[in-house]
Amino acid sequence: MVPMSKRLFAETFGTFWLVFGGCGSAVLAAAFPDVGIGLLGVSLAFGLTLLTMAYSIGHISGCHLNPAVTIGLWAGGRFPTRDIAPYIVAQLVGGVIAAALLLYIASGEPDFVLMGNGLAVNGYGANSPGGYMLSSAFAIEIVLTFGFLSVILGSTDNRAPAGFAPIAIGLALTLIHLISIPVTNTSVNPARSTGPALLVGGIALQQLWLFWVAPIAGAVIAGGVYRWLAAEDKAPVVGDNL
Prior knowledge:
Blueprint: H1 4-29, H2 38-61, H3 67-75, H4 84-106, H5 134-155, H6 165-184, H7 190-200, H8 202-206, H9 210-230
Helix pairs in contact: 1-2, 1-4, 2-6, 3-4, 3-5, 3-9, 4-7, 5-6, 5-9
């Protein structure tokens, strides 16, 4: 068993890598003059950060990097209750450090303004890239987090092909971003949402509740559904019907 201190460090660094790489691609590179990476590039950046960390620290902490994943794995019977709070705290610390470093770097550009989507914050209404309202944002965050946890639970099942889970999970996060960046700027991860929102403040902070409630709800539902879906029927014992 890996000591808790090492697992928490891995979760902190991994979440830092996810938020800095994903949000950093959106803030620094998405619209760079003439050669910006755009929506597709940002989606790939989020998927690649998770894929690389899954191979790097998956064997240390499980590479959750996301409070919704931690809670979803608990709901799926894969994670102990006692470890939930420490993992979530570590993930939040990593997300906040990443957002702070990203703000420091982005502020070096003379025209940078910390407002609206200045740090790739998540939001709905005025803070939605496409102007989508609360109901749409809530629905897509629940559905996509449900799908994300389903991929995680399925690809890490001991009956699944070994060694391919990080690829499936990274590609799933890429797909999720391709679908939902226009709607909410894509969360499915309360830690990813919290870091930028704390620094931007204002509407971003007021809307942060949705990016905790919806992802966690989707994750809990996925955990329960997968426990039912993956349960194996026990073979009848001779004499049971006697």
